[in-house]
Design brief:
mainly alpha, elongated
Length: 237
């Protein structure tokens, strides 16, 4: 018998290894009851048709990804993309190692012109020609390992507050991540209503609707960001 979304949610909440922040997130989700069941069923049908996720895993994927996206968005709140910084350091480290390997290759090519040095390496280790070839290949592999310069996977908004509410930066980041997840893995098209619900559960108090999400995703200009900030203000009680 297929599992319901609430059943999968309960299983995740029963995990003793879940962090305190994730537990609070899951408990907020449980407190929503059946209010958004139609959205989860809609996403499940779309995901099964698209076939990007393993069959029967849609509900678990949505829950796991929502927790991960909230963590990423919370890190973006500082205004610094720490994940990008780490990937940039990884990228640069491999480029530095590749340069060192090329320096060694150049040295052994130079050494080939001096019989005494070349004989020393041949007797002690390997012929200098082999050593040059090895380090050239090593540099090539390291550069492939470095890959292309990394880009940010989350939007770091310059504006973090409106007159009434601080924390818009994490909201923008979560909206971007949730929209990308749904379009890439669930249904290949935007679902602003689902993104709004996921955002409200992750960060209660902003009470977004689908039109707020649409405006936030269009905020690519300075004026657009201002409009999005106004759209994301918490509704007055």
């Amino acid at each position: 018998m297929p599992q319901t979304f609430r059943h999968v949610l309960a299983i995740e909440l029963s995990d003793r290894n879940v962090t305190q922040a994730d537990r609070a997130h899951l408990e907020r989700w449980v407190s929503e009851g059946r209010r958004h069941d139609s959205i989860w069923r809609r996403l499940d049908v779309a995901a099964e048709a698209l076939g990007m996720l393993p069959r029967g895993s849609t509900y678990l994927s949505i829950i796991k990804e929502a927790l991960f996206m909230r963590q990423c968005a919370e890190r973006a709140q500082s205004g610094i993309d720490f994940d990008l910084r780490e990937r940039q350091q990884y990228h640069q480290h491999h480029l530095d190692l590749a340069k060192k390997a090329e320096d060694l290759a150049d040295y052994f090519r130079w050494a080939a012109g001096y019989s005494g040095i070349a004989d020393f390496f041949s007797r002690s280790f390997r012929p200098v020609g082999e050593l040059e070839e090895f380090h050239r290949k090593e540099a090539e592999i390291l550069r492939r390992r470095a890959g292309r310069p990394p880009k940010s996977s989350v939007r770091i908004s310059r504006q973090d507050r409106s007159k009434e509410r601080k924390g818009l930066r994490k909201i923008h980041a979560f909206i971007d991540l949730a929209d990308r997840f749904i379009r890439d893995w669930i249904c290949d098209t935007p679902d602003h209503e689902a993104v709004a619900v996921l955002t409200n559960i992750a960060f209660p108090g902003f009470d977004l609707v689908h039109d707020d999400v649409r405006k936030a995703l269009r905020a690519t200009t300075r004026e657009g960001r201002k409009r999005a900030s106004r759209a994301l203000k918490a509704q007055k009680s």
